[in-house]
Amino acid sequence: MSGVYGRKIKMTIFGESHGASIGLVIDGLPPGLGIDIDFIKREMERRAPGRNLLSTQRQEKDAFLIQSGVFEGRTTGTPLCALIPNSDSHSKDYSILKDNMRPGHADYSGKIKYKGFNDYRGGGHFSGRLTAPLVFMGAVAKQALARYGIVIGAHINNVGEIFDRKFDPLGEETELLMSLRQKEFAVLDDVRGAEMQALILEARERQDSIGGSIECMALNLPAGLGEPFFDSLESRLAHVLFSIPAVKGLEFGMGFGFCRSTGSQANDPLYYDGDSVRTETNNNGGILGGITNGMPVVFKVGFKPTPSISLPQKTINVSEHTNTVLEIKGRHDPCIVQRAVPVVEGVTAWTVLDMLLTADIDGEV
Amino acid sequence: MSGVYGRKIKMTIFGESHGASIGLVIDGLPPGLGIDIDFIKREMERRAPGRNLLSTQRQEKDAFLIQSGVFEGRTTGTPLCALIPNSDSHSKDYSILKDNMRPGHADYSGKIKYKGFNDYRGGGHFSGRLTAPLVFMGAVAKQALARYGIVIGAHINNVGEIFDRKFDPLGEETELLMSLRQKEFAVLDDVRGAEMQALILEARERQDSIGGSIECMALNLPAGLGEPFFDSLESRLAHVLFSIPAVKGLEFGMGFGFCRSTGSQANDPLYYDGDSVRTETNNNGGILGGITNGMPVVFKVGFKPTPSISLPQKTINVSEHTNTVLEIKGRHDPCIVQRAVPVVEGVTAWTVLDMLLTADIDGEV
Amino acid sequence: MSGVYGRKIKMTIFGESHGASIGLVIDGLPPGLGIDIDFIKREMERRAPGRNLLSTQRQEKDAFLIQSGVFEGRTTGTPLCALIPNSDSHSKDYSILKDNMRPGHADYSGKIKYKGFNDYRGGGHFSGRLTAPLVFMGAVAKQALARYGIVIGAHINNVGEIFDRKFDPLGEETELLMSLRQKEFAVLDDVRGAEMQALILEARERQDSIGGSIECMALNLPAGLGEPFFDSLESRLAHVLFSIPAVKGLEFGMGFGFCRSTGSQANDPLYYDGDSVRTETNNNGGILGGITNGMPVVFKVGFKPTPSISLPQKTINVSEHTNTVLEIKGRHDPCIVQRAVPVVEGVTAWTVLDMLLTADIDGEV
Amino acid sequence: MSGVYGRKIKMTIFGESHGASIGLVIDGLPPGLGIDIDFIKREMERRAPGRNLLSTQRQEKDAFLIQSGVFEGRTTGTPLCALIPNSDSHSKDYSILKDNMRPGHADYSGKIKYKGFNDYRGGGHFSGRLTAPLVFMGAVAKQALARYGIVIGAHINNVGEIFDRKFDPLGEETELLMSLRQKEFAVLDDVRGAEMQALILEARERQDSIGGSIECMALNLPAGLGEPFFDSLESRLAHVLFSIPAVKGLEFGMGFGFCRSTGSQANDPLYYDGDSVRTETNNNGGILGGITNGMPVVFKVGFKPTPSISLPQKTINVSEHTNTVLEIKGRHDPCIVQRAVPVVEGVTAWTVLDMLLTADIDGEV
What we know:
Largest interface: C-D, 113 and 114 residues
Number of domains of chain A: 1
Order of helices and strands of chain A: EEEHEEEEHHEEHHEHEHEEEEEEEH
Structural class of chain A: alpha+beta
CATH topology of chain A: Chorismate synthase, AroC fold
CATH superfamily of chain A: Chorismate synthase AroC
Distance between the termini of chain A: 42 Å
Catalytic activity (chains A, B, C, D): 5-O-(1-carboxyvinyl)-3-phosphoshikimate = chorismate + phosphate
Oligomer: homotetramer
CATH architecture of chain A: 4-Layer Sandwich
Cofactor (chains A, B, C, D): FMNH2
Keywords (chains A, B, C, D): Amino-acid biosynthesis, Aromatic amino acid biosynthesis, FAD, Flavoprotein, FMN, Lyase, NADP
Binding site for FMN (chains A, B, C, D): 125-127, 289, 304-308, 331
Number of strands of chain A: 18
Binding site for NADP(+) (chains A, B, C, D): 47
């Protein structure tokens, strides 16, 4: 029971990288939302490999085919299914993986869970390709959120030892966030960006991979969004962010920095700015008690290095029950962080939209 | 819709700190599980304040009264309700909080969300007291997990700049984890523990508070637990861990350390240890592709400093629509991390039990 | 996993008839709803036995104690827990039922499901007493619905061979529906009502019981409520109505009468009544494609005779593994239909409120 | 939020009759289940029109294309998506329906709910064609249930005034249930079947339609399946059965017959048949307290006449805001009951499988 999630906006994800197609179904969209196909395409392209030397040389196509839920350019309000057919599969690259378990991947865990019946080719349902439906979902959600003036944007926070500068937690211009979407390598400081890209190419040279993190900001969320306890905004965001393959860490606002801080340093004083309520600092990243306070929501997501590396690795062969050494031939991303930016934005947009659409009736008697 | 969570084992939480009582309902427990009341009491006491100078001097009683779901000492399999009556409330301490919004708390967020109708006394439904039901849930779950040989244990990872040593990610003895439950201040290195406690007392002197983090380990989980995508073990654990008040960061295994690492450093090589499959390192914290691989599950949870401090703080008065200064009199915990240890263990135990109880039918035809 | 249900308004039910108390938790109520305690009491009294000779002579008290979620007379928006303590239990009446399975009851089914660990006293969690929380839920929901001008009312459709007249499917005055709540025996035609009561007393004389049905109407629902497929209004109402003990049949509008009808007879022609859209007939009971069309929602619920009768019955003793004969001493309702009226209304009100509170964002771009 | 339902086995349905395709995603299937494509095809054909004069002369193709979740002929355990492409659409038949609301259909309800943005062609998402995915789901579920020896079968109970004989509630041979699947017109008594078919053809002559009902039996369910209250087997079955278009009534066992019965007549006496527990009668249809007792589960589902008739009907034009008269040209089923038999079996099989796969851990300590 892993392929379905959401409250009002439920997403169902399906597909193996070497099956007929991957895709999603979105249930609960409001009717009448204009669907901008070109915008969705651009968002999908941000994720797709083969765009430059930093990514894999595979030519994945993320062309999508909408099967239902859109009529005359607008959502009908009924379930929307989008298919992303698989094409460039190169099955022969993966036959060795039936019994040799790649370290750092889900091969062994998945084989146990699915009792050996999972489609192991190219990672099957665990393939990073399955982030494409998440980007599609996010693209639709962003269009809905735009009607509220809500903008989600993200940049690469670090690759290896190279760190970009941070977002200003008190807020950035929406134009800045939008501009990041245009960049092939989404950073605020292009000098740092160039250093990161050098690191990545160097990792490729060494047949290795390298990790990194992403910082994400959601602007103009109304105050009052979220719930105490089990549907706090942090819980809901964490749930979908940790669904993204390779995510291993998440911190909101000051995050783990809080652990070495004091209350007098960490608390965000409130003040009236005209009629608006703001805080002087935003260490809490816009969320208190699981509920937004109107300040920008800010968090960082940590990604482990791509497990697929060409260097020889010690592992096991589950058919022969022996220890062995594995060299994974093929084309591997040395770093996935730059491709994960629209994925992080996408699941965030979905979650924010979902929580926004839960009604409260009028409080007066 | 925040008070209910879970798949097979659903927990419903209710209560305001100054209402009649707080409590929970647990739905989906298997029938016939022996309920050890004394064990539950001891777990509740680990959370309760007033045990020593480090915590608040309030005398909260976490005495609980089971209303249903237990018959002749065993679960019936029907919903189990436990009440925790409120007693030592001191309402007069909180009257000022109707309109003055405490920084770092949910006061303002909650007022917007609940349109001013929430019970603001003592934090109401946002009060840290609401972690008592989480510990009760965890105590019941731990009893169920013991039948599988699964043990959950945690220790304080840091308070301020003082760090305990870490768990060995390749595994610890269950006796070590159990022994932590006996300690008032759950650390592996008591020298460090004394230094932490000095820091906490010093913060109290300054009328301030201090943050910290907790490291948690789950031993003997079978491989194959969890799902890709939306019910990955990381997602499920993250969902409940971020439900705990004051949690602002979470990392699994190497966590954010991965972001500055390479694949060759980070991947965990597999090998056969007799018939068992183990990994030489456990940077992935026992979870790959969202599914356990049989190695210990290890993660760290970051807590912000208690927002309640006696120092004067700038804030707003929402009734008069002015900026103001607030001094919160009363008895405040200078650090909540030591009390949060059984809470982190508890929600982890609940989640692990919940995921364990989802069946798969036999794979053969 | 049976004690929790709902989408926006989740209800958790708990309790055994001979445990400490039974009760419920309601999660998702909007904040600021005035809670009229007296109204809830009156609704609970409609369900309670001992009011007259038609019902059991047990003196159940349905006094309730609100634990959370209400502050200064209004909902806070946080989970609302209400306890209904058990009192008049007479445990000695039920000791024989540990091993002798009463025909028509859940004794045997429940023993298998709960592996013998269920509380068998007085039916335990299966006791009809557990309908009291459903009435409480309904009373709160009715108060919320009143703000929309929505009224739910029901009457006894038949007891044995005696039938009341039906509601006019094109609509009744809200005053008529409200007036039924004042009656001890909720019928439209008091002559028929007297005949029904005679039948019931006669059944009591014979130490037997008798079945019946209830007709329910929901007035002033807006059009557009419900979903095609899995959350059709019929599906949602059916789900909760069949949760009521002893319910064995449900039909909407013309119901099974449709099965012997033609399209030309059954279809409801539409017309404009000023600006309103109405239908000339209402065979469809106000629901088409799972969605309301603005006409009154009308349905009938069929109840089997109370299984508890004093006549000797053949059954089994599961401890001795023998066939046996059982005579259930004690005080039994000869008919439960008159007590079930507020229960049917209550779960209907809850469902309607739940579906009403799901938001759609504005359809325009 | 209507397109997703289920607990362990979640089904997501999507599609408009005139969109690119309709289909479903099944999440939660156990891995390793052999998928018999031919069996699925045969089940789909039982539903498809154009097989004989009794049904519409449209040539719908229910050819399906599996996109994911099946590898080397077995389920992988990951989400299974099947597409059913639309082809024979004849859009020009439906253009009049944008503004003229067909009586008895969801046209008006749907237009209000979806604010005019729904795809109205051919009924869009409300089209009876959307029962094809339900049959596909049922075909897969039946294959899984076969491993437990559980068989689901149904026959036409009545069309108009002509009634088939009933199933023996104490049980039928599985061969009898299986044999019904081979028949084009699934009845037990072929003489009655011929009379029904004459009635249907006569209705077609009159440009009218006629209603009917279906009786369904599930054999060999273990005792103990289901829950008290909100997930009773009746509630779960009712939820999915009322999701089927045109269903307006449902009764379990004696159903509405109970309402005119007494306890001494209705209760089912239990007895030991060797080691098995059986009941002498089965008025309760195998379900007590919402839980199976091991006897056959039996129920009847009532269908209204197909709303689409060629006779002139009074209705409204929502664009011009006038009353009007509508004649629906085109090819209409005079009766849908015979096509609904595999749909009723299908959703029943899905529900039974779903409830079977919820685990309970061992009851002993």
